[in-house]
Amino acid sequence: MVANPTELITSDKNTTVKLVKGLLTQARQRKKQGQTVIEGVHLIDAALRSDYPFVQILVSEAAQHHPEVQQILTRLPTYTPILTLSDALYESIRSLGTGIDIMALINIPAPRLAAISNDCLILNDVQDNGNVGTLLRTAAAVGIHNILCTSSTAQAWSPKTLRAGMGAQFALTIYEHLSVQDILDYVQTPLFATSSHTDTMIYQHDLKQPIAWIMGHEGQGVCDELMQCATPIALPQPNGQESLNVAIAGSLCLYETLRQREYT
């Protein structure tokens, strides 16, 4: 059964419209409200497949009868509020380009950190949304569920990171705004980190036991406090490039871990 949309909204003074606009554009608003916005059919479908609850659905007047939107609406719990926006109003707040105009307001999960003794991925001040999203997507693909983000890491639930992650966030447990000490206190799994100061290649390490992979800042790498507690590993670069993009490096590490465990 399709939930019934409310009356057509045409004013940018509408409370929900103002909230959504702020969440789409301002990191501090997302942090303050504990909410974010997912845009487009793909991300909403990913949330639905994970039974992730929606606070509200917003759809443009023109898109409300689109077959893919109708299919989404039939899968919503009947109590889900739906706002229909005029096409001009929707276009004025969306952050995506031309497409199927539907978005959802959701609460950002805030799980409480407890001791971690299995595989995890630590993002140590990785600042680019695209890199964070790619790493989350790769972690979900290889079956790593716990993600720990230090305080200067790009927001895992920002609209840009959500798009880069293609909805991987809904399959993960993501801890954000952590200090280095939080990680040292709660992660009981051996730490491994890529480093340019070692000659020991990743293929020389036994990665069959649980591992906490650390991926660091795009320019500065993993911070000294974490690196001092980690096993440094190198990735081969026979053509002598200075370094790999952090998302590429992280993906290589995660897939070598998977290869050693399941494909040797």
Automatic annotation (TrEMBL):
Residues annotated as transmembrane: none
Coiled-coil intervals, chain numbering: none
Keywords noted in UniProt: Methyltransferase, Transferase
Residues in MRM3-like substrate binding domain copies: 14-93
Keyword Membrane: no
GO biological process entries: methylation; RNA processing
Residues covered by the tRNA/rRNA methyltransferase SpoU type domain: 121-255
InterPro entries assigned to the protein according to its UniProt record, in alphabetical order: Alpha/beta_knot_MTases, MRM3-like_sub_bind, Ribosomal_eL30-like_sf, rRNA_Methyltransferase, SpoU_MeTrfase, tRNA_m1G_MTases_N
Organism superkingdom: Bacteria
CDD domains cross-referenced by the UniProt entry: SpoU-like_rRNA-MTase
The keyword Methyltransferase is annotated on this UniProt entry: yes
GO MF annotation: an example: RNA methyltransferase activity
Similarity comment: family membership: Belongs to the class IV-like SAM-binding methyltransferase superfamily. RNA methyltransferase TrmH family.
Record-given protein name: TrmH family RNA methyltransferase
Organism, as annotated: Psychrobacter luti
